[in-house]
Amino acid sequence: MQDAAIRTTRRVAAGSIAIACVVLGIKYAAYRLTGSAAFYSDALESVVNVAAALVAFLALEVSHRPADKDHPFGHHKAEYFSAVAEGILIVMAALLIFREAWEAYQAPRLLTAPLEGIAVNGVATALNLVWAQYLIRLGRQRRSPAFDADGRHLMADVVTSVGVIAGLAVATWTGWLWIDPLMAALVAANILREGWKVIVASLSGLMDQAMDPADEERARGIISANAAGALEVHDLKTRLAGRATFIEFHMVVPAAMTVGASHDICDRIEAALEREFHDATIQIHVEPEQEIKQTGVPVV
């Protein structure tokens, strides 16, 4: 099962590279048809998409390596580095687009074959939309920061591409050439915002961010429902590392309980948590009843 998941991940990552290259070619063709600064900025963002897809592919390869002597908790966090790198690339692209927009504003360019360019760019936008939705859905299912960041970046690309197409249509209809560099600047502003969001989310993961509050509350309920025989569970801590979840807590049992009996409770709790949270690693520290705090998870 695990090998099949890894193969699927590799295929999707490789598919992202291929699609990014195709979209880049189509958008560059739209720019060559029209000479539009906005289409140039859209194509430049696709260069970032190609680079980001390559970085994501490498990060996913590393993240699926098994735990070893130097990395006993696995390599899951490699995906966060991919997402941070993608955010930095987005910011760099935004700065380059701002420069192109300013140059086009200072020296307005007459657009050529705008309708053909709009049609060509529309094909690339549609392709990005389909792939972005797939990546975001897969990222949520597998809790993959790399896929989620790549999908959200592509979705931002779709939004900006729609804006670029609309702006170019207005510029063609009205003859207001200043709209073209304005749309390029808006593209840069939008992807700069998206890049910042990607970086912040990834840094939170690198800082051992806890589970979502709703998920953590669900974990508490599962522990409570499966801890019969124990007296209390306290000091529950959780953290996320890419697709992996780490859950640890202290469990208080009667002082007279045998090691075997307390181990059975631990096994029951672990099995229930693993059914709910795939790729979860559970650490339970068993304590005697004098360690009870009356402030932890109630035991049903």
From TrEMBL:
Q: Where are the transmembrane segments?
A: 12-31, 37-60, 80-98, 118-136, 156-179
* Organism of derivation: Plantimonas leprariae
Which one GO biological process term can you cite for this protein?
Answer: intracellular zinc ion homeostasis
- Which parts of the sequence belong to the Cation efflux protein transmembrane domain? 16-207
| Major location category of this protein | membrane
Cation efflux protein cytoplasmic domain sequence ranges:
212-289
Q: Which domain of life is it from?
A: Bacteria
Protein name according to UniProt = Cation transporter
